[in-house]
Amino acid sequence: MAKSGRQELPKTGAEKGNDEARKFSWKNWGALGKMGSYLRPHAWGYALGILIISASGILTLLVTRLWGQLGGVGTMGDGPAQVESPMQALNIDMTNLTSIGWTILIVLFVQATLSFARVVLFARMTEDMMRDMRSDAFEAIVRMPMRFFDTRRVGDLNSRVSADITAIQDIFTTTMAELLRQVIIIIGGILALLYFSVTLTLLMLATLPVMIIAAILFGRFIRKLSKRTQDQVAESNTIVQETLTGIISVKSFANEALELVRYGTSIRDIRTLALKGAIWRGAFASFIILFIFGAITLVIFKGADLMASGGLESEHFFTFLLMTGLVAGSIGGIAAQFSALQKGLGAIESLMELMDEPQEPVDTRSESLTKLKLAGRVQFKNVHFHYPNREDINVLKGIDLDIAPGERIALVGPSGAGKSTMASLLLRFHDPVSGDILIDGQSLASFPLTAYRKRVAFVPQEVILFGGDIRSNIAYGKPDATENEIMDAAEKANAKEFIDSFPEGFDTLVGERGVQLSGGQRQRIAIARAILRNPDILILDEATSALDSTSELEVQKALDVLMQGRSSLIIAHRLSTIRSADRIAVIADGTIQEWGNHEDLMAAQGPYFRLVENQEIGLA
Ligand code: ADP
C-alpha cells in the first residue's frame, strides 16, 4: 500500500529525530526502577551475587596483604615479623614463608571458586532477564499501531532494540559486578593503606582525586566522540541497506556512481571521526598511565625513605606498594565501568520508553477471537482524514460510501487520491479524524480490533512471502488450517497447478533462501491465503505491474472465486477488474467524484471517462 511506495523516498535527517541517541543524566536512574519487574524475580540471586563479589573483593585485598607479607618475611628472614590478628586466630604462622604461601594458595582457590560461581550466577539471571525483555520488546513492537511504523525506519528500530538489549546485558553480566568489586577494593584498600601508613596514604590520596575527576571528564568526552562515530557507522549502513533494498532503482537509473559517492563520503567521515577518537583515547590512556605510575613512583620513593629511617615495616612497605597498584588500577578502570553503566542505563531508558508507547488493543489470546461474524455492510460516513505525521495535508475530505453485503466496489482514480488510505482506514490501521466508518451499522471503533481484523482479508499489491515453504505461507491466513483446507484454498486460488509443478510441491521453500516466485504466482499465494481465511470483508490492492495475459487470467479467475459473496473493496487498475465490479467509485483529491457502473460512467463522459480515455486505467 502507501507504505511500500514511501520506502523508496530518500530519508531526511529529520526523520531520524526519534532514534537519536538519548543523553543519560543522573535523573535517569529511575530507568533502573522501571526494570523492577525484570529484576524482582532475581532479587535473592542478586543479593547472593553482591555477597560473593564483596567477599571476592575482600579476598583480593587479603591476598595483596599476604604477598606483602611474603616480601617482608623474605627480606628480613624468619624473624619477628608482625603477626596479623585474623591469621593468629586461624593459627597460621605469618613468619614462615611456606605457611604464608599455602595460605595464599588456599585463599586463591576460594576466590577462584567464588569468581566462577559469580560469573555463572550472573549469566543465568541476566539471560533470564534478556529472554523476557526480548520477548516483551518484540511484543511491544508488533502491537504498535501502523502510525508508529509510518514514522520509523524498520531497520533502525531493529538495530536500536538489539543494541539496547546488548548494552543492558553488559551492565547486568559484568559492569555492575565490576563496579562493585572496584568500589570495595578502593574503599577497603584505602582503609588498609591508612592503617599501614597515614603519611604515605595521604601522599597517594593527594594525587587520586585529581585523577578521578580528570578521568571522568575525559571519559565523558571520549564517549561523546565514539557515539558520533557509531552514528556515522549507522548512517553508512543505512546507505548500504537503502541501496540494496532499492537496487532496482539504482540499476535502472544507472546511479551506481551516485551511491558510491554517497557511501564514500560517509565512510570517509567514519575514518576521520574514528581517528580523532583514537587520538583522544590514546591521550586518555597515556594520561592514566602517567598518573598511576607517577603516583606509584612517588609512593615507592617516600616509602623507601620511611623504611630506611625505620618508620615503616618492610612487609607493610611491600603490601603498600602492591595495594596502591591495585587501588590505582581500580580507580583507572572505574571510568570505563561508569561509561558502560551510563550506556546501559540509557539503553534501559530507551527500551522502557519504547515499551511505554501506546499500543493497539491487539488481542493475542486466540480463543476469544472466533465469535465475530459480519454480514459485511461497510459505510464510510463523511470521513475526513489526515496522517498523524502530516497534519497539514488532508488526505480524505468527506468520503461517503455504502457497500452492501457481498457487493464489489472498485476504487479508481489517480495516484495519491487517497484510495490506499481508505483501505488503511477499513483495516483500522488508522482511525478517521472525523466522521465514522460503520460495519453492519456499528462503529468500526467499537469492534474488538483483533477479532475484527480476523474477519477481513487484505491482498496487497506487493505480496511479501515469509521465509519458509509454500504450505506455511498459505496457512498464514489460518494458522490452524488442515492439509485439506490448504490444498483446497490453493486449488481455488488457481495456484495448485504451479505449486505441483515444483519437485517439492507445497514443501518448496520460498523467499530469500528458496525459489523466487513470479508476481502472478505470489499474488495467487496471497489469494489462497485470503480464501483460507474466509473473510467477510475483502480489501484488494490490485497489482499495477503488468502480468502477462495468462497470469492475468489466472489471477483474475482466482480473484473471482475469492470475491464471491464477500463485500469487496478493490483498489483497481485494470479495466477487466473494474468492469466486473458492481459499482465504481472515482476518487480524486480525497473525495468521491463519481459513482456508477462502467457503462453509466462512460456514458456520463465525466472524470471516469477521461481516466479511461487517457488510459490511466490499464486496458488489459
Ligand atoms: P492512492 O492510494 O490513491 O495512490 P494514498 O492513499 O496512498 O493514495 O495517498 C494519499 C495521500 O496520502 C498522498 O498524498 C500520500 O502522500 C499521503 N500518504 C500516504 N501514506 C502516508 C503515510 N503513511 N504518512 C503520510 N502521508 C501518507
Structure description:
This protein is α/β, with parallel strands linked by helices. Among the domains are: 14-197 and 332-360, ABC transporter type 1, transmembrane domain (ABC transporter transmembrane region fold); 198-311. Helix content is 62%, strand content 10%. The protein has helices at 2-6, 30-34, 36-39, 43-76, 85-89, 97-142, 146-150, 154-196, 198-245, 247-252, 256-308, 314-356, 419-426, 449-454, 470-475, 483-492, 496-501, 519-533, 549-563, 575-580, 598-604, 607-613, and strands spanning 378-385, 396-403, 408-412, 434-439, 442-443, 456-459, 468-469, 509-510, 537-541, 567-571, 583-588, 591-596. Strands 6-9-10-3-11-12 form a six-stranded mixed beta sheet, sandwiched between helices. A four-stranded antiparallel beta sheet has the order 2-1-4-5, covered by helices on one side. Residues 1-22 have low confidence and may be disordered. The structure holds adenosine-5'-diphosphate. Adenosine-5'-diphosphate (ADP) binds next to helix 13.
